[in-house]
Design brief:
- The protein is α/β, with parallel strands linked by helices and 523 residues long.
- It has 11 helices and 24 strands.
- The protein has a domain of 340 residues.
- The strands form 4 sheets. Strands 5, 6, 7, 8, 9, 10, 11, 12, 15, 23 and 24 form an 11-stranded mixed sheet that branches. The protein has an 8-stranded mixed sheet with strand order 16-14-13-18-21-20-22-19, sandwiched between helices.
- It holds the Pfam family Glyco_transf_92.
């Protein structure tokens, strides 16, 4: 986590007596302090290395309302669609996190130049910002239609241009139902993953998993499943602004939940033309079809019974289950037998028919916030957030903050499905690649109670349990995560770039994403 080194005004004043240069520097820093109402930090530590950054404004809790001259934007992804059922021909969709407090981003437009081997076309992109209003950064999706056979894409403002990378959207999907899993960081609960990935495969779903950081042996287990065709792993990157000529706020600590909305947008844009249905779930949200053998059949039946509806909303019922400490002891039969349900169904997740969404993306939390009913024929998600140990005790006491009572399993899981999933797990466990990594999987939780308490202190306690402190932007980027000698993490990384100084928006982006063993276990 970043550490802030703050130069006191007294020290700076003494330095100013030494040189005129220091005096100018002090005046610049002091002016920013007056603007922000908080301390301006000229030096910080990013992950494992120090990085000089004179323009970063220290606002770890996201409370500043300062308007800057420039809104900085971190481009998460850009997709090109030669053809699209809803976006039209030669469409381009932009997905970015952008400062919405410095400049108004409602109905924001920006200039785009698309070029192929023969012509360039100037277009004005329209956009829609969706997200939490009390976060400085929001997710913004923009779109244009441009030249065919697109080779080069630029954003232009006041005569200044920046070339930005783009990817081809998918036109085929591994399965008709794609389950987009929200970004995982310091991921360690491989048991929940095993439960989800094998169940999804049984019912015709394919997981698309975004990773920021994950215990190395758990990552190796995911790679086994990826090779077997059960899932696709994708990078979820820290947002870094490598070079700026104007002040900015850290996007990671000033956006809703690590830009989770950006990941959902990316997944929708990737599979929009390829999948029949896209679900936006967390790893611990597991769906068992109620009336049909597959997700596809169930979703088709639900929408057929609800004409004009293009989404399904699923509530989340809390469950507990006994967690196997080792892979050799992991059994789906035993896991289901240990499942216990709570009576309360909380706000949940959504499944969409992507072809129904044309000019803009749909962020599922909008449905969660404003939807007043769920499809009555839909089952609830089995939410297995906090398992118990095999001896019946909880090493992780963090769940005691929420008083939840559990009883007999309410959801129905068919016996033939349980047997089929158990057989599939047995096959995976006996692959040579799985047996090689099995003994290295963590047997108990380390990061979960730390992260859970951070989230509780930052948002859930004040929001739902009337704890003191209030809450603003839902974010726990300030959470301090200790490093371990026994378990190392794989972390997403990339080459980071900053475009030239542009007004009203300066753009930052990445290329060449990769997995790194050198960064550590961080958000």
């Amino acid at each position: 986590m970043p550490y802030e080194y703050i130069f006191s005004k007294k020290a700076v004043i003494i330095g100013c007596l030494i040189s005129t240069t220091c005096l100018l520097y002090f005046l610049f820093v002091n002016s920013l302090q007056q603007l922000n109402g908080s301390i301006y930090s000229p030096v910080r530590v990013e992950h494992f290395h120090r990085k000089q950054d004179e323009f970063l404004i220290d606002d770890p809790r996201g409370s500043s309302k300062v308007k800057l001259d420039v809104s900085h934007a971190f481009i998460t992804s850009i997709y090109y669609y030669p053809t699209s059922k809803s976006l039209g021909s030669n469409a381009v969709a932009f997905n970015m996190a952008i400062d919405q407090r410095s400049n108004q981003m409602r109905n924001h437009t920006f200039n785009v130049i698309g070029t192929n081997s023969s012509i360039s076309l100037f277009s004005i992109a329209t956009s829609q910002a969706e997200g939490v209003g009390n976060c400085r950064y929001t997710t913004l999706m923009g779109r244009i239609n441009t030249v065919e056979n697109l080779e080069k894409l630029e954003i232009e403002s006041n005569g200044v241009t920046v070339e930005v990378p783009f990817k081809m959207a998918r036109y085929s999907a591994p399965k008709p139902v794609i389950i987009c899993i929200s970004p995982q960081f310091v991921a360690e609960q491989w048991q929940i993953f095993m439960m989800h990935v094998n169940a999804a495969n049984r019912f015709g779903g394919h997981l698309h998993v975004y990773l920021t950081s994950i215990i190395e042996s758990y990552f190796d287990l995911m790679k086994v499943y990826e090779r077997e065709g059960y899932l696709t792993l994708d990078y979820w990157l820290r947002m870094k602004l490598t070079s700026t000529e104007s002040p900015y706020f850290d996007p990671n600590s000033n956006i809703e939940w690590r830009n989770q909305a950006g990941a959902e947008t990316d997944c929708l844009l990737q599979y929009k033309e390829a999948a029949e249905y896209i679900a936006f779930f967390d790893m611990d949200d597991i769906l068992f079809p109620k009336n049909y053998p597959t997700y596809l059949e169930e979703f088709n039946a639900i929408l057929a019974a609800n004409p004009g509806t293009n989404y399904m909303f699923y509530g989340r019922r809390e469950h507990e289950f006994v967690k196997a400490p080792t892979l050799s002891e992991f059994s789906f039969v035993d896991l289901v037998a240990s499942l216990r349900s709570s009576r309360v169904v909380k706000r949940g997740k959504v499944v969409v028919r992507p072809e129904a969404y044309n000019s803009t993306w749909i962020h599922y939390s909008k449905h969660v916030t404003f939807m007043t009913r769920a499809n009555v024929s839909s089952p609830t998600l089995v939410h297995v957030q906090l398992p118990v140990e095999k001896n019946g005790k909880r090493k992780n006491k963090s769940r005691d903050m929420w008083k939840i009572s559990f009883g007999k399993l309410i959801e129905t899981i068919r016996e033939d499905d349980i047997k089929a999933i158990e057989d599939d797990i047995y096959r995976i466990k006996n692959l040579s690649s799985t047996m090689t990594l099995a003994s290295n999987l963590p047997s108990s939780d380390f990061y979960l109670p730390i992260v859970f308490k951070c989230y509780y202190d930052a948002f859930y306690g004040p929001a739902f349990d009337h704890k003191p402190g209030g809450f603003g932007c839902p974010n726990a980027d300030f959470c301090q995560l200790p490093q371990r000698d026994d378990y190392k993490c794989i972390h997403s990384d990339a080459k980071y770039y900053s475009g030239p100084h542009m007004k009203p928006v300066t753009y930052h982006f990445t290329t060449d994403s990769s997995w790194s063993k050198d960064i550590g276990c961080y958000q």
